[in-house]
Amino acid sequence: MRLRLKLVLLVLGLTTVLLGGLGLAVIGSLRGWTDEVVDAELARRADVLVHEAHFDEGHLELDDDDDLATRGLPFRIERENGSVLLGSDDWPSASLTGLGAISTRTRSGEPVRVLSVKFTPRHGREPLVLRVASSLGPVSGVAHKFREGLLYAVILAAVLSALGAALLATWFLAPLHRLSGAVDALEAKAITGRLETRGLEPALGRLAEAFNGLLDRIASGLRGQREFVGRASHALRTPLASILTEAEVALRQERSPEKYRATLESIIVTTKEAARLTDGLLALTRADAAANSVAREEVVLVELAGELQHLFSARAEAGGLTLACSAPPGLVVKVTRARLREVLDALLDNAVRYTPRGGTVRFEARAEGPGVVLEVVDSGPGFKPEERTLVFERFFRGSAAESTGQPGSGLGLAVVKALVEAEGGVVSVGEGDGGGARVRVSFVPAP
Amino acid sequence: MRLLLAEDTVSLARSLAAGLTEEGYTVDVVGDGESALHLATELHFDAIILDRMMPRMDGITALRALRKKGVKSPVLLLTALGEVQDRVDGLDAGADDYLVKPFAFAELVARVRALVRREFGQTSNTVAVGTLVLDLGSHCASVGGHALELTSREYTVLELFVMKPGVTWSRSQLAEHLYNEEAERDSNVIDVFVARLRKKLEAAGLPGLISTQRGLGYRFEPPAVTP
To answer: Of A230, A242, A402, which is closest to B9 when you measure between CB atoms?
Structure first.
């Protein structure tokens, strides 16, 4: 509404100024032109009078007195001191001084134009002043009517253009109104609706397309969110269903103590799995929260390698694996220590879990350019090439996980990725020893 | 009654199968949607229990494919989400019922029983043919108020007969309802069950209910209602 009002006022103002200015210019030039015409007529008459005026026996006379008098063209001839020597009866104005053409008014207020010239009549001894006058009444009437007409025309034009502007504004705003109506009609929850972009003004079409693009992105985000909630709740509720069913089925009839024991043991395994899953989900939530770089410190990697070697040696030994954790002395990486430990724990846990007896698991650190690269390499089943981009997806379980029957949440590498990214690093997977897995974590300090 | 259970979580699948077997059902277990689809198209199941999220093919996709192939067995969908849209998706895909995890085992059994009953056109848990009454919930049969002592297999055969009176059952059809894919089958055993069942019914005063159709199998003739 305000836009329309602004447009109307703008057009109204512009029309008035333009047409008014044009009218004033026309009036000005018209006046100059009428003055010229009248002046030429006056000059012609003055010329005639100058030639006709002569002194006869001390009296000033005209050659053809009647002619001018009857034509009603007022004139008078004065001495330079202003005393009138001769004049028509209908001289309209009071005494004038000065020479040249001037516009003035009679005592009754009628506009007249008076031309005064100095001349010396025949047989005269002194110069006299001849004044001729012409009523501007008819001309000024026409001019007055013209001005009046012009005023009405300007007002009419202004009103019409304002109306036109209002209509134009409505016309131009209509697609916008339709567009906003369509946006209103889109339901907040179901982001399935899209705006019609065909048949719109190009500019509005682009706006609608941009809006549709935004809707697409929101919808895709929501889909991802819904998918995650679905998978998370499936992953959380299934162990609960499992525990409940195991207990309920066990209690449906009397059983041997061994059967009860087996059920309880199975429930413990399932509960542990559920707890690990909950940990994974919480870790994801923590890692997804804004990265806090304040807690970062310089972690000496050779110390970290020692810790990891110590922590995993028992499990590696039990699994018949060769474990080697190493780092060049003096190499440090600036990260949050707890997060890096969480990442490497998860990676080594995976490696030890999936690598069959007799295999090797290595943790290595090295400087690469300005950054630091940490790698966990094993000789296990590895990642299939087509799985390498999927392994970081939440709840993805690789073919190795299925074929080895290892329990898992499908969250391990997703947590690793979230943690590494929260620390400003990059994680990728590749091929390790003899087709095994290689997980590479690199940190490049910000310039 | 033969059920297909498709559930990828091993511990849940194991305990569900154990519980359902104790309930007298014959259960085949698969761990992913693809196997479920494969098995359900190959064989006839009286009801199918499908987990919604499974590796390789999720439950909804498998269910749609099953319905497209014309498999009409009733399907109970196990889902983790109880939201309306989720239920609608499941029912639209062709599920007959759904159960939100975690569920009480007794409820699952009740729902499966209801699905099977509906499949056979029964509306209540008690089915009476003349003086013969079957309680589908407690798996008990009685004649004129006197309980009939039946083994689980014998009861299952009688239930199949009573559910579809006048229908001829081949030995292999009966075996399909009694044994899952893992069990070793011997169709002669069916003859033994039927013979024993016949004898017990005769002893209860209902002779001639089960007739032998030579070369075809067995048929159950409902007893005439005594006035």
So the answer is: A242
